[in-house]
What we know:
Largest sheet: 7 strands, parallel
Number of helices: 7
Number of strands: 10
Strand order of the largest sheet: 1-10-9-6-2-3-5
Shape: globular
Strand content: 15-25%
Bound molecules: 6-phosphogluconic acid
Structural class: alpha/beta
Distance between the termini: 17 Å
Amino acid sequence: MSASLEVVADPARECAALLESIASEGGQLVLAGGSTPRAAYEQAGGSWERATVWFGDERCVPPDDLRSNYRMACESLLDRVRPAVVHRIQGELGPDRAAEAYERLLRDSGRAGGILFELVLLGLGADGHTASLFPDQESLFERSRLAVGVPHPGLEPFVPRVTLTLPALAAARRVVFLVTGPTKADAVAKAFGPGARPDPHVPASLLPSLAGDVTVLLDSAAAGGAV
Length: 227
Ligand code: 6PG
C-alpha cells in the first residue's frame, strides 16, 4: 500500500476541515506535535463534545512547559473546542513510566487489537522521523507494545519522549501526514516518493505498508520532486 500525496494551496485549512469532520462524528483522533499542526489546530472548530483526543507522542516535560505537545494543542485547539475526552501523555513521569501508563489507557479503551482511531495525524521531520520514531532506533521494530519511551530522540528538543509505536499508529482508519515547507521536501521524497520503499532510516516510510489508508497533505514546497 502506498501513500497518496495531496498537494493543496492551504494544507492547514484542509487539515482543520478533516479534524472538524472526524470530531463531529465523535471519533477518536490522534493529534500530532511539533510546530506544523498549530496552524491547522487554530483553524479547526465545529462540535467536539463527542470526540476523544489522543497524542501521537510527547516530550517528557511538564504539561505547562513550552516544549509540551499537549500545551501547544491546548493553546491552539483543545481549550477552545473542549473535546469530551483528552488522553494526555504524562511525560513528566519519565519515558518508561509515561509509556506504560499510556499503554494501559490505550488497552483499557477496549479497542486494542482492532481499529484504535478514526484518524491519526502526524508530522514529518526533515530526517524522516514521525511522532517520536527516529531513524534506526529499536522503537521502529516494536510490534506488540502500543507506546514506548524514547530516551534519546534524534532531533531537538533533545529531551526524552514517549511515542506511539508503528502498530498503534497503523491501527487507524486514516493516517494523515501534514507537511509543509521546502525543508521537508527531501524527507517527503524519501518517505513517500515514487522510489520510496520501507526503510528504518526513514521511519515515516514504514507506515504506508502497515496502515490501510495513508494520505500526505502537503504544499508544493514540501512536495518538491515527490510528485
Ligand atoms: C514532535 C512531533 C514530531 C514532529 C516533527 C515535525 O513531538 O516534535 O511529534 O514528530 O511532527 O518533528 O515537526 P515540525 O512540525 O515542528 O517541523
